[in-house]
Amino acid sequence: MTPNLHLWWIPLLPLIGAAINGLFGKKFSRPAVAGVALTFCGAAFAYASYIASRFSSLAIPYSETLAHWMRAGSFQVDFAFYLDQLSLVMLLVVTGVGFLIHIYSVGYMWEEGGFYRFFSYLNLFMFFMLMLVLGSNYLVMFIGWEGVGLASYLLIGFFFLRDSAAAAGKKAFIVNRIGDFGFLIALFLMIRHFGSLDFSPVFQSVAPMSAETGAAGLLTAIALLLMVGAAGKSAQIPLYVWLPDAMEGPTPVSALIHAATMVTAGVYMISRSHVIFERAPMALTVVAVIGTLTALFAATIGITQTDIKKVLAYSTISQLGYMFLACGVAAFSAAIFHLMTHAFFKGLLFLAAGSVIHAVGGEQDMRKMGGLRKKIPWTFWTMTIGTIAIAGIPPLAGFFSKDEILWRAYQASWVYWLIGLITAFLTSFYMFRLWFLTFTGEYRGSQDAQRHDADTPAAASVPHGGHSHGVHESPMVMIVPLVILAVLSFVGGWIGIPGSLGGKNQFDKFLAPVFHASTPALNSAHTMPGETAPPEQQTEGPEPQTSRTTELIFTGISVVAALLGLGLAWLLYSFQPELPQRIADTLNGLYTTVLNKYYVDDIYAAVLVNPLLAISTNVLWHGVDQNVIDATLNNSADGARQLSDSVRHMQSGNIRSYAGWVAAGAAAVICYMVWLGVRAQ
Amino acid sequence: MNVHDLDPVILSLITFTPLAGAILLLFLPRRDREIRWFSLGISLLAFVASLHLPVHFHRAEPGFQFELDKAWIPTPNIHYHLGVDGVSLWLAVLTTFLTPLCVLISWRSVNERVKEFFILLLVLETALIGVFVSLDLFLFYFFWEATLIPMALLIGMYGHGRKIYAAVKFFLYTMIASMFMLAAILWLYAKTGTFDFIALQRAAQAGQIPDFPSAAGWLFLGFFVAFAVKVPLFPFHTWLPDAHVEAPTAGSVLLAGVLLKMGTYGMLRFNLGLFPLQARANAGWISVLALIGIIYGALVAMIQPNLKKLIAYSSVSHLGFVVLGIFSFTAAGLSGATFVMLAHGVSTGGLFMLAGLLYERRHTYEIREYGGLATPMPVYSATFMVLMLASVGLPLLNGFIGEFLVLSGAFQSRPLFGILGATGVIWSACYLLWMYQRVFFGQVRNAVNAGLLDIDGRERTALWPTAVAALVMGVAPLLWLNSIEPSIHSMLVPFTQVASKVVGQ
Question: B167, A188: Cβ pair inside 8 Å?
């Protein structure tokens, strides 16, 4: 029997840290605040590692119940935790990358005001994220789901003196809530039809259902509603609009929440619910289509952005699109594989970008950077590794995971593959564009890298108001996490080398018990051609030689695409740097449209937000409330007033006399009641 | 002496302790400081006494407990009949919990006619508790109307702006509506010769009330109108924003925190308890009104320029959830509705206190007057954040539990209603977060606000219990649900019977 693992300690530890810093941190010194935050986050990582080390000796899936949470009738929800291969991967990614980013933040945030507040929020985020990945039912997952949204809201708005930061935090929370609305309805459907929200009973109820039976509609509805939630949290079309704005938060936050962990929650949730999605082919198609479109759409915007963090933000949306594409073609382990490698290289890229921003005194516009290679060598080399990794150039991590997704996408439909390939080319292009603009050529910023608002009186909560002493490399406390993530971005893909390249794809094998154990009796006959491929048993036996050759050809094609992207970026941003402007001028209309992010934010404002506010103000409040309801009442009251003109001495305006009348009236009523009662007997 | 010896008298003790305190206050000299401390002591005494209820309540038992039934007036046959079940128990405790906080929050803001203020407050407390613990319809009606007088006076005497208009509007609105309930009560008395709720319920179920089937539809409506105005259900809600804006802080806290729940409590106890068939027949349009309230209240809250009106309209929205849950006739819906009543009392009570503290400092509720308050008032802002998030319905805070149960119950009975109600999770985030952003974030634009004092020890003592309660209720809701559930189940028995009868026919 598996001993009690007390998994609940893993989320609880960072919560304790958050509470200590949140309640008392104001009085602590900075080292003390950092010490508390790192201790509790590190302890969670240590405990997770300990569980990982014992993982093979455990009976998996493992679950434990800490306490009952709520109950109504036969429906009950517990604080219960669940561990299997999938949650272990998430657990290690979240605590590991999270811990590294905590360390980095100590250096990055050292001179900012609200140091204790920042670490309290960061620990709070860890608590909710760990609840999300460890929950044994959808409602505990929902605690984490909404909670990470809260932490994200607080951290995006960390520099709350800036109106843009406060607005971005609010926008993130509200857009996420739209997704959560879908999630909630999915939960209600589960309660109604399965009577439970626990993973095991829900999946057991779903397992015998198939697309042919009458349950297809139900499962499709649940899956699509979950997808609405996932689209909100993971910034997919049409709910992606909050993520670019979220870059208002401090850069470590962008790295942790808006790249490595929280935004991947949607991918985790869909993978966790794969039993449902696999039986809802229509929903899977929707997931794949949305993922593919998001990947391409965001990549095109990424090309035109000049803010280094905005490029990375659109890149994140695009990469998340890949993960959704993988989920949509039922390649869940490929999605999780990319989730993991993405956590490494995108976490790295954001932290390195933060180091760049740190170095140039808070500047985020790449047009004012350039030539930083020599000045910040550690940042340069680690960021180079991250860029190669995301571009999909072998043998770095991104290559393996992206290639796996493209191959599985091709098996479902060549359209997915082609768009994925174009996106891969664009990814490589905009990332090397960033790299060339930042590190090569001549430095284009002002010499002393003076931040324009460094003299603002409220510098305490404006980022990087304090240190502006020329371009400088970051302190070791920031470099060490960069190096570790760079190593992971380099070798992290090697645990999933596919058979075609002579590997064993151990990652897929490791996750197989989660995703393959309960694979439904889907076969190709059930799947519409060109839509979803059956989840094949990749782990068993060698693949046929032809398929292996084809796979190798496709691998070659995607490497070529990545190298083309690199080449084009070199051409435009290093060899012929005046070309981009000429191209932009030639394609003026298109360029402006893309630069303005296809005007999606403006369309949302014009079509949804403004009409809603106008209707609420003019129709509902001034119209219904004041002109209809109250006017009716006041008119009848006026009528009554004329009637009572004879007794207008009542209306003396004297409070005491009012009180008297009120009391007398009440007394009269009671007397009348008594009289009625007597008469009735 | 055994504590259980207290059981029969404990409800009377809790109900009349504040009244006794008010009477004593009459004879105390006008020394404001002593009067405040005395009132605080009395309200705390009532609170401590009320803790006897949850501690010694038998959670598994569905019926009324701590009952006391004494013949009071022979003709008409009025009994002094008190008792609580798992629902009214917590509403009574909510009242005693909020009143000491109201005393604390009024410490400095009420400077004139201090003695009268606290007398009114304590009389109001007695009347509110009385509403929840009465099992005799006459007694219930007596307390019901008795809440009006102190509340209207609190608004009229200690409010601001158009306080007379607000007080009169509040008074007339609810008074007129109550007349319909009075007529229904008297009809029942005329036919049965008793005001006793339990006896009436038994007689109605057994079909022993003459002419009941033909009159029940009207009787149901008579009760319902009185309750709907109190809740307030759309379109009877327009008295609420006016009353709130002009009311003193303590008045708003008790108005939103407790007084509105008299309406939803009445629906639960009387509309469902006495007229299950009619409740089922009318559930459709009532739920639609509740849904309109949820969405309409939220949308109008969103564009309010006035902080207190915003919270008032948010109450319209939240109470819509309660009504939706009650008329879903599911265990989740009714438990959730009861839980929302308590959660809303705590979190909105807290929000009104917070708004009041701002008014004390700046004498305005206009949102555009503020901005950037997080800088001069960090503790205040953090407390506001917690209570706002509770109101938004963030999991692990109290708002979520009730709303989730209500919506899942509504969804079970009519999926479309559940879906429409669930849009509330989006709206509440919109109006509260937008308000929070405008009041607290950004630079301080109005120089006056730069020097605002953060909350002091007394103010923290008044506020933090609500924040802590919001957290505890969100993490361990079973402490409440365990005693609410059995009562809910017994309330639902006639509905399952009705359902099976309908199926049988």
Answer: no
Question: Which of B300, B422, B485 faces A625 most closely, judged by CB atoms?
Answer: B300
Enter the tokens of residue A136: 């044994």
What DSSP letter does each residue of B170-194 carry, written as one string?
HHHHHHHHHHHHHHHHHHHHHHHS-
Residue of B nearest to A68 (CA): B478
Tokens 């060490």 belong to which residue? A480
Q: Is residue B355 part of a domain?
A: yes
Q: Out of A142, A169, A625, whose CB is closest to B238?
A: A625
**B134 in a structural domain:** no
pLDDT at A214 over 90: no
Interface test with B, best of A8, A145, A160, A224 (most B CBs within 10 A): A160
For residue B423, which residues of chain A lie inside 8 Å, CB to CB? 181
The residues, ordered by sequence, that sit 6+ positions from B482 with a Cβ below 8 Å of its Cβ are B59
Instruction: Classify residue B220: in a domain, yes or no.
Output: no
With cut-offs at 50, 70 and 90, classify the pLDDT of residue A462.
very low
Q: How many CB atoms lie within 10 A of CB B30?
A: 10
Contact (CB<8Å) A662/B335 = no
**Residue A645 pLDDT exceeds 70:** no
Count of Cβ atoms closer than 10 Å to residue B479 Cβ: 12
Q: Is residue B253 part of a domain?
A: no
With CB atoms and an 8 Å threshold, state whether B443 touches A458. Answer: yes
Q: Given CA atoms A156, A160, A164, A169 in this order, what sign does their dihedral have?
A: positive
Tell me the torsion sign for CA atoms A297, A303, A305, A311. positive
Domain that holds residue B405: 299-505
Q: Which residues contact A471 (CB under 8 A, 6 or more apart)?
A: A359, A360, A361, A372, A375, A376, A443, A445, A449
Distance CA A594, CA A596 (A): 5
Q: What is the ipTM of this complex?
A: 0.91
H/E run at residue B68:
strand B65-73
* Facing residue for A174 by CB, picked from B186, B430, B476: B430
When divided into structural domains, chain B yields a total of 1
CB pairs under 8 A between A and B: 189
Q: What is the pTM of this model?
A: 0.89
> DSSP assignment, residue A137?
B
The CA radius of gyration of chain B, in Å to the nearest whole number, is: 22
Q: 3-class DSSP state for residue B73?
A: strand
Closest by CA position to A554, among listed A500, A509, A502 = A500
